[in-house]
Amino acid sequence: QQSAEPPACKCTMDFVEKSIQKVNQLGAGGGGGTDSKYFQTTKKGEIHELREELANPKMEKKKEAVKKVIAAMTVGKDVSMLFTDVVNCIQTVNIELKKLVYLYLINYAKSQPDLAILAVNTFVKDTQDVNPLIRALAVRTMGCIRVDKIVEYLCEPLRKCLKDEDPYVRKTSAVCVAKLYDINGELVEDQGFLDMVYDLLGDSNPMVVSNAVAALAEISETSELGQKVFQINTSTLQKMLAALNECTEWGQVFILDSLALYCPSDGREAESIIERVTPRLQHANSAVVLSAVKVMIKYMDLITSQDTLKALYKKMAPPLVTLLSSEPEIQYVALRNINLIVQKRPTILAHEIKVFFSKYNDPIYVKMEKLEIMIKLASERNVDQVLMELKEYATEVDVEFVRRSVRAIGRCAIKLERAAERCINVLLELIQTKVNYVVQEAVIVIKDIFRKFPNRYESIIGTLCENLDTLDEPEAKGSMIWIIGEYAERIDNADELLESFLESFDDETASVQLQMLTATVKLFLKRPAETQKMVQDVLTLATQDSDNPDLRDRGYIYWRLLSTDPEAAKQVVLAEKPNINDDSFTLDPSVLDELITHLSTLASIYHKPPSTFITGRTRMVPTLGGGAHDDEYEESDANITSDMMDGGMGGAQAAPPAMPAPSAGGLADLLGLDDEIAAPAAGGGGMGGAASLAPPGMADLFGGPPAPAPAAPSAKVVLPPDRGEGMQVRSAFVAQNGRVFQQITIENHSPAPLSGFAIQYNKNSFGLVPESPGALGQVMPPQLAPGQSHTGLMPLTATGQPQD
To answer: How many Cα neighbours within 13 Å face the side chain of 634?
Structure first.
């Protein structure tokens, strides 16, 4: 057996034994001392030490041990294995130790539910203690231990504490009911706890009343019964108002928030409640102030006396202004709420606009919010002050704030007709600064002013045209092009200006291209003799060279309008535009009313109803088109895909002829041109058929050859040779006989022959795949020599459903 032992293992054991002997010899020769003590210890680990200390009969030692356990728990160490030892310390008269044990219980009861039942008897016993602090502590801990197994054991102690003689115990019990309802709502309703909490609204102690209000309000948000859980009547209303003056600040917030949900019977009752609430406006806590404002604004709808309303406005303004002297975070919350208040009752702060002027050291989010409120409060009386301030902001260093300030000047012009000219003058002064982003933003807002006040301020167009070279942003370019097209008859060199944009047509964004197309057509309709070639070039670029469907469709519509009936084209393209409106008060009145009832909550900061961002606590609105209609939508999607396949994927190749008959589509019906189209269509189609209808100047453009039919798509390089190791691939989609093919051209630029061709499709929005895995190999030669190329049509099939 010894010979069977591995040599390496034997050597290791010998080495360890010899090492220990040497250490002992060294210790013996060192004057009686020994170093072997460093290899021996009586310690059994931190947990073992804590367990021994928890079992110590001395109160101070035990308290220190529990503190160590709590400290370890706080820093994230797992001390759940001491659960039984800590629970054993619960039997004590020392209130400090009991608090510590209860804190441990709350943290670990969820992970140790079976052991948590051991503490139930202690809870029941503590709820009968002579000390009200211990009774309340037991109730509070009962509510925080979220374990279903022990909830039923706690019902009887809670019932007794709800009727306790001490108000501190009663107020704690009221909150415990709300916590218990969150764990097991049915049990709370069956045990009658809701009625008991409702009875606490009539308690003599204001703190008990405020906690009962808080508990019922919390339960009403989660209960299926909703507001039926907490209905305020005349008697409870008076008790809540009486408690309002004496409870803590957060108790006042709970009561005020509940009053905001109450609907007074008439204006007199509303005035009476407002009178009791008004003193809360002087409170130091901003939450109390905003809650009081919420109640007052809600009840103002019932007050008809203008004198009473004016008096209330005067009382509400100073507290709202005071909120803006707080730290920036509270300022922002206050400003978001004030934004809603101003939309509902602008008169309240009509004389306080200076308060919303930005300071140099305000954070950017505060500045932006103040800017919004300034625009809402701007009036003909204070617009000069506002414009001076906005002009000053336009010289700030923060680019986004400068842009918003310039845009605010335009919004003031649109809002206040009499001040529009002053706003225009300020914008012209800003344009003279030649600051790039200021000029571009000014052009954008001037376009809006022209839309609002047509044919009034065209004298400034010359100044705008001088700054064409500075425009490099799509929105600014689009605005300038719109102005040139709209007032082409007043700009002598309008064609030259548009041609300068036309040079970079392909590089512009879709929005600029669309504006360019429309502006060119406008110019042609106003000055046809000079711009025939330009409009033809733009229409060609839009319909044949562009792959943007919006641009292409608009180009076709304009082309057919012009070729069919130029007068109809004038009526469509040069029609009078609807005036734009002031967008300062954009919220829907019903949404605004709902947000007013949620002042001083997250809803008032997001400016969205709670139902849009809170899930799980309110009933969800059924999804439109859900349920039984899902199949219909799926079928509809499949039909859409099928229609696209039948119509062909060849882009312009599958488009209708340039001059379709009325029955070929809905375009003629849409424009009401059936009669005019019929004759040219019968005579061969094209734009030439409209020559007789065109006025002088247009006949030359449209009296020639027919409009070119949409061209077949050119194959695009999808794999250049530098990335394909000498293999170049071109691809295009075509439709033939109702089937879809991919036209693939492979060119061999490498020195070696290519073979073994295969293709794999990723998931695509049309559900297209090759008809067979080897489809590409079937349409390609077995080998492609260097310098050769080959084109093949690979058949495709749709899998049925579009894929992500």
So the answer is: 9
- DSSP-derived letter for residue 743 is E
Please report, for residues 188, 219, 223, 441, 471, the alpha-carbon distance to residue 184 in angstroms, rounded to integers and kept in the order given.
7, 12, 11, 58, 64
Q: Do the beta carbons of residue 88 and residue 71 sit within 8 Å?
A: no
Q: How far apart are CA 460 and CA 431, in angstroms?
A: 11
Alpha helices in 184-325 (DSSP H): 185-190, 193-199, 206-222, 234-244, 249-259, 267-277, 286-300, 306-323
Question: Which pLDDT does position 713 carry in this prediction?
Answer: 54
Categorize the per-residue pLDDT at 36 as very low, low, confident or very high, splitting at 50, 70 and 90: low
Residues found in the chain: 804
Q: What phi and psi values does residue 521 have, to the nearest 5 degrees?
A: -65, -40
Characterize the bridge pairing of strands 716-719 and 739-748.
Answer: unpaired
pLDDT of amino acid 339:
93
3-class SS of residue 588: coil
Q: For 4, what's the count of Cα atoms within 13 Å in the CB-facing half-sphere?
A: 1
In the structure, what pLDDT confidence band is assigned to residue 670 with cuts at 50, 70 and 90?
very low
pLDDT of residue 340: 93
Sequence-separated (6 or more) residues with CB below 8 Å from residue 510:
548, 550, 551
In the predicted structure, residue 795 carries a pLDDT above the cut 50: yes
Which residues on neighbouring strands pair with residue 722, listed in sequence order? Answer: none
- Find the range with the poorest average confidence among 287-296, 412-421, 562-571, 628-637: 628-637
Asked if residue 697 has pLDDT above 70, the reply is no
- How far is it, in rounded angstroms, from Cα 305 to Cα 528? 64
Are 728 and 719 in contact, with CB atoms under 8 Å apart?
yes
Q: Which of 486, 436, 430 shows the shortest CA–CA distance to 461?
A: 486
Write down the pTM of the prediction: 0.66
Cβ–Cβ < 8 Å for 440, 479: no
In 545-682, DSSP assigns E strands to none
CA distance 376 to 371: 9
Looking at residue 612, its amino acid is T
Report the candidate in 465, 448, 449 with the shortest Cα–Cα distance to residue 457.
Answer: 449
Give the angle 383-385-387 at the CA atoms, nearest 5°: 65
Q: How many angstroms from the chain centroid is the CA of residue 574?
A: 38
On the 0-12 / 13-18 / 19+ scale of CB atoms within 10 A, 93 is exposed
What dihedral do alpha carbons 313, 318, 321, 325 form, nearest 10°?
Answer: -170
- Position 332 pLDDT exceeds 90: yes
End-to-end CA distance of the chain: give it in Å, rounded: 69
pLDDT of residue 804: 46
CA 798 from centroid of its chain's CA atoms:
36
Taking only the tens place, the pLDDT of each residue in 713-759 is 567 888 888 888 888 888 888 887 778 888 889 888 888 888 888 88
Coil, helix or strand at residue 794: strand
Query: Quick one: CA torsion of 766, 718, 551, 518, rounded to 10 degrees?
Result: 170
DSSP 419-480: GHHHHHHHHHHHHTT--HHHHHHHHHHHHHHHHHSTTTSGGGHHHHHTTGGG--SHHHHHHH
Instruction: With residue 18 as reference, give the H or E element that holds it.
Output: helix 7-28
Is pLDDT above 60 for 423? yes
Q: What integer is the mean pLDDT of 97-108?
A: 86
Contacts from 642-646 at CB under 8 Å and sequence distance 24+?
Answer: 642/798, 644/766, 645/740, 645/766, 645/798, 646/738
Sheet holding 727-736, edge to edge: 716-719, 727-736, 739-748, 789-798, 768-770
Cβ neighbours, 10 Å, residue 717: 13
For 112-167, what is each residue's pLDDT tens digit? 777 777 777 877 888 888 888 888 888 888 888 877 777 777 888 888 899 889 99
Collapsing DSSP to helix, strand or coil, 657 comes out as coil
